[in-house]
Amino acid sequence: MKKLVVLLFILSLPFLGMNLVGLSPFDLKANVQVGTGIGAKLACSGRYLSGFDPQQIAADIASYSAAAELLTIGYDDVEMKAGASLLGFGLTEAKYRPGLGCTLVRSGSEQLNVIEVPKIQGSLLPWPQGSIVNTLDNGEQSQLSKLLVKDNDDGLQTRALLVVRDGSIVSEVYAEGFSPQTPLMGWSMAKALSGIMLGHLVHVDELAVGEANLFEDWLLDERRNITLHQLLQMSSGLDFSEVYAPGSDATRMLFVEASASGVAKASALIHPPGTYFSYSSGTANLLSEMFVNRTGGTQSAVNVLYKKILQPMAMAHTTLELDANGVFMGSSNIYSSTRDWARLGLMMLQNGELNGHRIVSEQWVAQATSPNSSDNERAYGYQVWLNEGDKTLRWPDLPVDAYAFTGNRGQRVMIIPSAQTLIVRMGWSSEGYPDNLRFSQLLKL
């Protein structure tokens, strides 16, 4: 009788608002898998990557729904694992590995134990080459501090704000408990790095933008005609559902399956490639699998990412996590310090170069920031959102040439070439972030 009562209670959870966590009265197994998956994953990364206390982690998870408070979360600081169960059901664990972050424990995930991660050496050179920031403008610093206070008085949970102008940090502020070294989750800002990683392979002639026949699984049907260019612009025509519901493509990919990229790779073709834009986190994970395949496997991919991309940009506080199959979770799972996010944006602002190193070509940056050719949504480039491309501007109070890396909790790297400015905002805003208003105010400074 007691188990029946518990079961009925679980089935009632969606009516308490379990939206993104994905609970539904119609699929109990998916309810438990998704709820415990997101709990274990965010708890593990929050504790062992960001260094948050259990109270902060619990609040972050609960922000997706009050019903998430029904999760029981535990930590094993010796094994560096976090586990989550839902009313005693469906224990899911995630394990932390230095340099690789946290991965849900699935069959085969133990293979990640042997991956060696190159060390990125920090330095005492001025930012962006090193950790020294001595370019702050007192007036702008004061204004940014006031904006941080206003954000948090308004309940926006802003954790960091940083402004770069003409290649230097002119102001940066952090909420209590956060610092310039704290790796913070970017959610879908990870997609921008995924695109850049493929852009680097194009730059070193390991790939071509127009290349097709991308996956062996696609060679016997029309999916063989999908090009890298179309994947980057999210106009592949694949039937991947970005809806966050139990058993959906997106929730299975992020919180259930051992292979994140496998979900999108199995999708059918429902539109002619290049004709229809459909925002798809699955697409970003296909790009990640391409990166791993073209570099020769997980170990080689980790080496290239660290030695050829992160180290040259001095991104010493950045981790891109893997799935259980050893493929980067390029759709969502990147933890990076605010200053490292700014470095990534500055590389794009400087047409593909940073610290004397070329990461991607000037042509790549131009292509990445140009509207796509779809029939329905053109204001999207290579894994970045554009201001211009459709009839109305996405951010009407910002310059036309603005573009951004964006994340689920209002995380932003807003890049404005005409003003030689970029703005980073890190936070955990469940209702989004008023970036058009806030960033236009910062530009007027």
Structure description:
- Helices cover 33% and strands 16% of the residues.
- It has 445 residues and is of the alpha+beta class.
- Among the domains are: 2-97, no CATH class; 184-225 and 305-444, DD-peptidase/beta-lactamase superfamily (Beta-lactamase, 3-Layer(aba) Sandwich), CATH 3.40.710.10.
- The model is unreliable at 1-26 (pLDDT under 50).
Radius of gyration: 21 Å
Let me know the average pLDDT: 92
The shape is: globular
What topology, given as strand order, has the largest sheet? 6-5-15-14-13-12
Could you say what the CATH topology of the domain at 184-225 and 305-444 is called? Beta-lactamase
Strand content: 15-25%
Task: Characterize the largest beta sheet: strand count, sense, and whether it forms a barrel.
Answer: 6 strands, antiparallel
- Helix residue percentage: 25-40%
What is the first-to-last residue Cα distance? 65 Å
Task: Enumerate how many helices there are, as a single number.
Answer: 13
What's the CATH H-level homologous superfamily of the domain at 184-225 and 305-444?
A: DD-peptidase/beta-lactamase superfamily
CATH structural class of the domain at 184-225 and 305-444: Alpha Beta
Number of separate strands? 15
Short description:
By secondary structure, the chain is of the alpha+beta class. The chain has 13 helices and 15 strands. Residues 1-26 have low confidence and may be disordered.
